[in-house]
Amino acid sequence: MILSNKRDFQLTSKNKKSHYLRVGFSLKREIFFVAIGSIIGGFTMHLPRILFDITTGTQYLITLLVLARVVGSDSPEVGFALHITVATIIGIVTGIFLHKVIKFNISKIKNGLIYGIFAGVVVFAVFAIPVYQLFLGPNMVELLAELDPEMTFLEASELVNQNFVSNLIDFFFMHIIWGLTVGVLSSLLTRKAGANYRCHICDIEFSKISTYEKHVENVHENPSPSLNRILILGGGYGGVGVLKQLQEAFQSDPEVSISLVSKDNFFLHTPLLPEMATGMLASRHIATPIRAFCKRARYYQAKVEQIDLNNNKVTITRTLDNQKRDLEYDYLVIALGGKTNFFGNKNVEKYALTIKTLGDAITLRNHIISILESADQEEDPDVLSKLLTFVVVGGGFSGVETVGEINDFVRESAEKFYRNIDVEKIRIVLVSAAEKILPEIGDLGKYAFEKMIEGTR
């Protein structure tokens, strides 16, 4: 969600102390709301003039006919539709101006009225008056003379000039009606569906103010015994996946509290680590802040020290200063991920580089570059052969992806930057305990093997 400027509001209610909350507004939604208000305003601003045409015999219909001729039509309905289209465009422009330039808070009805009057006056002065003087007036003279053969062009011109002031007054009040409609509707829609309300204590947000108020009452003022506390351990695919579903299911339920604990404050797209290790992607492309997902949940960056299933309690340690804290729960989700399995091979465990974290990917990249630098200077063929041999252990998704990226990275780097390295002497080895790679995907594994052999020449 794109957030515009944020404001602090103080809410007060009966028998409650005041609480400060952070209110965020969606720029896209509010521009949409202003556009909707402008379209409806385009209808409402015409109603008084049409009513006057019916009751007093005024000729506002001629204005619509002049507008219709802009697109080559003689139908007043076309002129009306054109005016609605222009109102929509103006609404979008004013919506962008509202948020990008003056950063005006339209969520309050009073502010909506102020903005509506301001927008109506500005559009009248900047748009309506020039259009009337340069286009509507001259074309209205021509249309009057055409509709009434007995009226000369001079008489039609005098009639338009006589009605100039009254027409401008009509246009002024029409644009005020348009502006007030835009302001009030935009304000109401923003309050209803355009804002999110964030508790500054828990750092979680709600889509409805009523849910926020219930949260304050149930959690901070009078803790409710019926409050369901859900605790998620882990910020990987499992933890974040569950978090998204829980937030969607309980967005408006004040009886549910959600918390997430992860030692890293970012969600890592681990399948893309090989691309980062070889420089195809930057770290920012595969890491997303955990807090970006925690809309309805509270986040703790900490390590899980102990899980007490008997007492429904988890002990966590804060990363910065190792301060311990107990978190109680009613429902526990354990999604802490796994560790690299060396299957009892002590030598691999001792000497191999893993690729599990951002740090692992950076270490691997630096190590490969260091090896190439040393190989470029090495004259002993035996030592050079060892330096130019790269071994990846594991024939699953991670191993195959890693060996492919290393192969491309090493060979392309040697060709472009390391002139003393013979590319034909580079050996890329994949070690797998199974008879074939990628057994998870069946026959496609055989196809992948053939392509990999082609790529390694």
From TrEMBL:
What reaction gets catalysed by this protein? a quinone + NADH + H(+) = a quinol + NAD(+)
Q: Which SUPFAM superfamilies match?
A: FAD/NAD(P)-binding domain
Q: Where are the transmembrane segments?
A: 20-43, 80-101, 113-135, 171-190
Q: What is its EC number?
A: 1.6.5.9
Instruction: Kindly give the Pfam families that the UniProt entry links to this protein.
Output: Pyr_redox_2
Whether Membrane counts among this entry's keywords is yes
GO molecular function ontology, one term from the record? NADH dehydrogenase (quinone) (non-electrogenic) activity
Residues covered by the C2H2-type domain = 197-225
Q: Which of UniProt's keywords are assigned here?
A: FAD, Flavoprotein, Membrane, NAD, Oxidoreductase, Transmembrane, Transmembrane helix
Q: What enzyme class is recorded for this protein? A: oxidoreductase
Keyword Flavoprotein in the entry? The reply is yes
State the InterPro entries in the record. FAD/NAD-bd_sf, FAD/NAD-binding_dom, NDH-2, Znf_C2H2_type
Q: Which family does it belong to?
A: Belongs to the NADH dehydrogenase family.
> Would you tell me the protein name for this molecule?
NADH:ubiquinone reductase (non-electrogenic)
- Native species of this protein? marine sediment metagenome
